[in-house]
Design a protein that fits this description.
The protein is mainly beta. The chain is 6% helix and 33% strand. An eight-stranded antiparallel beta sheet has the order 3-4-5-6-7-8-9-10, with no helix packed on it. Strands 11-12-13-14-15 form a five-stranded antiparallel beta sheet, with no helix packed on it. The longest helix has 22 residues. It is elongated, with a radius of gyration of 43 Å.
């Protein structure tokens, strides 16, 4: 291809006001030097084909410059900004890092604040810190979003961690409160799940929460009660596997319309033995109060002190037994044995 060369001559109105054009065959440059009253202000536009700065817009008087160049170590195309001779910001494509578009300070690898991968499907930000989050509002630099570790994002307010999310937990920092403004309803609970908007948590009244399933109230919690709605049952996840209360964590009272139902058929039992006569001990019936009673009304019950050990509740998987708590069904068994023994004696007397 042939090389073309052009020379332009501009004739100024006066000697003091002139525009100079200089052309170099090896490095085509155009300098526009505006002069006023013989004073050089050097408002420059420089176009170069071989130098590291192909396009510069600068002012030598203040060392302020906007430059499109490839002066990075490995020749990355970048747009740089200089103030008072110091490079302050860089925007460019880093071909040593998968051609990522980066926004940085003095170089493409220094204080990268934001970057866009080649695919362009996301915008990536610097990690930031709790005091200097990477996403913040103008004028409020210590409040925003930052990324303290891999698979973690946190909110900071006033330089104080408030709320965090990782791959396994959602955490609200001590001293902070999560407040939900709307109360919701049974048909549209305020806390719900994607694709199942009528199942979740509602707050129908002050100091009250309700669990809703399929738009139907199921379980309620207030300041004083936990309530199961009519038609709903509380049941263990597996048969004969969970306890209701444990040794040292007893219910004070259990109210029931139909009493306690216990499986008692011999097909559900093993190691069956008859009760020998020495084991037939009738517990003493007594009237009493409990130390925690807030009233003086007495109850009638049993004194279990002299009962066989088989009557006392097993409290762990090793077979250890309580020293105070008994199986009431064991007492019923002893009474049945005593009645049977007494019936035999009466028959013998007859």
């Amino acid at each position: 291809m042939a090389n073309l060369s052009y020379t332009y001559t501009l004739t100024p109105n006066t000697t003091a006001d002139a525009t100079q054009v200089m052309q170099d065959f090896n490095d085509a440059k155009t300098w526009l030097n505006n002069r006023d009253n013989a004073t050089d202000y050097w408002q420059n536009v420089k176009i170069s084909t071989t130098a590291s700065n192909p396009v510069d817009i600068s002012s030598s008087a203040s060392s302020t410059e906007v430059s499109i160049n490839n002066s990075a170590t490995d020749g990355d195309p970048i747009l740089t900004f200089k103030l008072s001779g110091a490079q302050t910001h860089v925007v460019g494509v880093d071909d040593s890092d998968s051609d990522i578009l980066k926004f940085a300070t003095s170089s493409l690898t220094t204080n990268v604040a934001m970057q866009i991968p080649t695919a362009g499907l996301q915008v990536q930000f610097a990690a930031g810190t709790v005091l200097l989050p990477s996403l913040a509002a103008i004028g409020d630099t210590n409040t925003g979003i930052y990324f303290p570790a891999s698979d973690a994002v946190e909110l900071t307010a006033g330089g104080i961690f408030a709320f965090g999310v990782t791959a396994t937990i959602v955490q609200i920092e001590t001293g902070h409160t999560l407040t939900i403004v709307d109360a919701g309803s049974n048909s549209a609970p305020i806390i719900t799940w994607l694709g199942d908007t009528d199942t979740g948590i509602a707050k129908p009244l002050a100091d009250t929460l309700e669990l809703v399933a399929g738009g139907q109230y199921a379980l309620g919690v207030s300041a004083s009660i936990v309530q199961v709605e009519t038609g709903h049952n509380i049941q263990p996840a597996a048969d004969n596997a969970q306890k209701c209360g444990i040794n040292g964590k007893r219910w004070s009272e259990v109210w029931a319309a139909n009493g306690s139902i216990q499986t008692s058929h011999t097909s559900t039992k093993s190691n069956i033995e008859s009760i020998d006569e020495p084991d037939i001990l009738i517990p003493e019936a007594i009237k009493f109060n409990r130390p925690e009673d807030k009233h003086s009304a007495k109850q009638i019950g049993f004194a279990a002190d002299n009962l066989p050990e088989e009557c006392f509740a097993v409290i762990d998987d090793e077979g250890n037994r309580s020293t105070t708590d008994i199986y009431l069904s064991s007492v019923v068994g002893l009474l049945c044995a005593a009645v049977k023994k007494l019936d035999a004696r009466i028959a013998a007397l007859e």
